Amino acid sequence: MTGLPFETSLNTENLFFKEAREEPFDIYGLYKPRETSYYCRLPEEVGLNTNDGVKTLFKNTAGGRIRFRTNSSRIAIHVESDYIYSARHITDIGASGIDVYCEIDGKYRFAGTYHNHKQDFGHEGLITLAGPRQEREIMIHMPNYSNVVNFYIGLENGSTLDHGKKYLPGKPIVYYGSSITQGGCASRPGNAYTHIISINNNRDFINLGFSGSGRGEEIMANHIASLEMSAFVMDYDWNAPTPEHLEATHEKFFKIIREKHPEIPVIFVTKPDYHTDEYRGGDSIVSAKRRDIIYRTYSNALNSGDKNVKFIDGACLFNGMNPDACTVDGCHPNDLGFMRMAEVIGLSL
């Protein structure tokens, strides 16, 4: 097909492409996507000045979603990346893949995954939706761990294209934390706990999880405090390098948020793999000390009259049969672990 702004091996016969920044696509979870030359989660002045990890990770598109309505039976993508993440403990689809959901009976359901991994430029792929041609609400999850510069969506010539359904009224939930918050090691983007909560409750969200780099800095707290949000989840226990670091940052971080948002629910979460310390050689004493620090932030808020704080003990997040089956490596949740996290954290929102 001629006239495309990219080269492709896709069969583009009878397809037209538009970049996701164009109308009528709706983009959620990212920082000013129509004003930046690449998709990202933070303004550069924050992303480049928080710590060395955030300096690169803020360009990962974790939590980025594209919604639209179409009657096209085929949905193609061509995604250009300047960095494609790969790691031994996470699948390529979980790290850099893209999945698609369709609304069925009022709820978005998984419809397919783009898994044509092209190391030279990014991703491309084509999904044919089942059933007769009809109007459908579509939601595409962008990669949790890779960068996106351009995201082209292809639909059948002559098909309809319009804005997708909105989320329930209200401001987004904001999550801040570690690689677990970012979505590692979900098998695909939609299985991260932040995404599951959103799908189950039709609520918008912003994912500010930074792998190995959620350390509670003041510059991050000030940025998050500047955001419009309906609730805030603090989930960075795993990334505070020491209990002393956690103690020095946790309550201070919360107070910065609370000063700007006096009424929103704030949920404090401790690391979810607490019990695995008992059988993988971890230091349960240190884990308990960290948990106590976070609980102290919570109890101090309660004692000051704050009625909109909640504490979630990570020891309960993997409750149920076979809690030791909930992670890939004793730290990062698999899909089962993320589902159980979503069930517990979702009830608090």
Q: Strand content of the residues, in percent? A: 15-25%
SS-derived structural category: alpha+beta
The profile of the biggest β sheet is:
6 strands, antiparallel
Question: Mean pLDDT, as a whole number?
Answer: 93
Q: In whole angstroms, how far apart are the ends?
A: 47 Å
**What's the total count of β strands?**
16
Give the overall shape, derived from the CA principal axes. Answer: globular
Order of helices and strands: EEHHEEHEEEEEEEEHHEHEHEHEH
Q: Could you tell me the radius of gyration in angstroms?
A: 20 Å
Percent of residues in helical segments? 10-25%
Q: How would you concisely characterize the structure shown here?
A:
The protein has 349 residues and is α+β, with helices and mostly antiparallel strands. The protein has helices at 44-47, 52-57, 92-96, 179-182, 193-201, 218-225, 243-260, 284-303, 335-347; strands at residues 15-19, 26-28, 65-70, 74-80, 98-104, 107-114, 117-118, 122-128, 136-141, 150-156, 161-163, 173-177, 205-209, 231-235, 266-269, 309-312.
Describe the structure.
With 349 residues, this protein is an alpha+beta fold. Helices cover 25% and strands 24% of the residues. The chain has nine helices and 16 strands. Strands 2, 3, 5, 6, 9 and 11 form a six-stranded antiparallel beta sheet that branches. Strands 1-10-4-8-7 form a five-stranded antiparallel beta sheet. Strands 13-12-14-15-16 form a five-stranded parallel beta sheet, with helices on both faces. Strand 14, helix 7 and strand 15 form a beta-alpha-beta unit. Helix 7 runs parallel beside helix 8. The longest helix is centred in the last third of the chain and has 20 residues. It starts with 14 loop residues before the first strand and ends with a helix. The mean pLDDT is 93.
